Amino acid sequence: MRDTLAILEEGQRATLFDVYARQLGRTDDAGQAWRWRLIEAFRAARPPSARLYDDVAGCLAQLRHRGLRLALLTDNPAASQQHKIDCAGLAPAFDALVLTAEIGGSGAPKPQAAAFHAAATQLDLPPAALVMVGDHVFRDSLGALEAGYAHAFHIQRAGAFFNFDLALCVPLLPPGRMTVLQSLTELDAHLPAGSNQ
To answer: How far is CA 192 from CA 68, 135, 189, in A?
Structure first.
């Protein structure tokens, strides 16, 4: 447990099982088979519940009250993401659920423009009428802006998995097109009055 948590905290989430196998010296064929069993077990895990940040429900309710149309755009295996959405009870809050693994024949994870265009298509709105709210500067914010979205809101939470050095990252984005939030409770104040899309 300690070793895997250290790997995660070092930012190697996507390669957790590869790094863990190397640390244990399991790089032969038997080790690769063991690694794949770990990956499959992880993908098959179905937690009984999903915890939301305290500001999520209120933010979604406020956006709905304004009449905004909402899409959830998420990466990773579709079955596990759908399970998380179901456990969290999020589906009713959105007009569209876009699982990027299901786009096209082989999927289109963020930051590919196809992911953001799929959300726009499902909402029946042009990308220029949309904003993105996410926690990853490059996959969410920059991906959305490069796909033609009007604006991006980056949520930077203390203790979150992604914790970017914004002094380094923000200059890489188009000026004035990304707003940093500490909480979703701030979002409504940044949206134009009378927004209804």
So the answer is: 12, 22, 8
Q: Write down the domain spans for the chain.
A: 2-44, 56-190
Cα distances (Å, whole numbers) of residue 170 to 33, 50, 149, 154, 183 = 41, 31, 17, 10, 18
- As beta bridge partners, residue 132 has 152
Token pair of 170 as six digits: 């923000």
Predicted TM-score (pTM) above 0.70: yes
CA distance 123 to 141: 19
Distances (CA, A) of 190 to 4, 125, 180: 39, 20, 10
Handedness of CA 99, 60, 113, 174 (dihedral sign): negative
Q: Is the dihedral angle over the CA atoms 21, 26, 27, 33 positive or is it negative?
A: negative
Q: In whole angstroms, give the CA distance from residue 157 to residue 162.
A: 8
Q: Which residue has the tokens 């990466």?
A: 75
> Which helix (DSSP H) or strand (DSSP E) does residue 116 occupy?
helix 113-123
Residue 197 has pLDDT above 60, yes or no: no
Predicted pLDDT at 75? 93
Q: What is the pLDDT of residue 111?
A: 96
Look up the CATH architecture of domain 56-190: 3-Layer(aba) Sandwich (3.40)
- Per the CB < 8 A criterion, the answer to whether 40 and 17 are in contact is no
φ, ψ for residue 194, nearest 5 deg: 85, 5
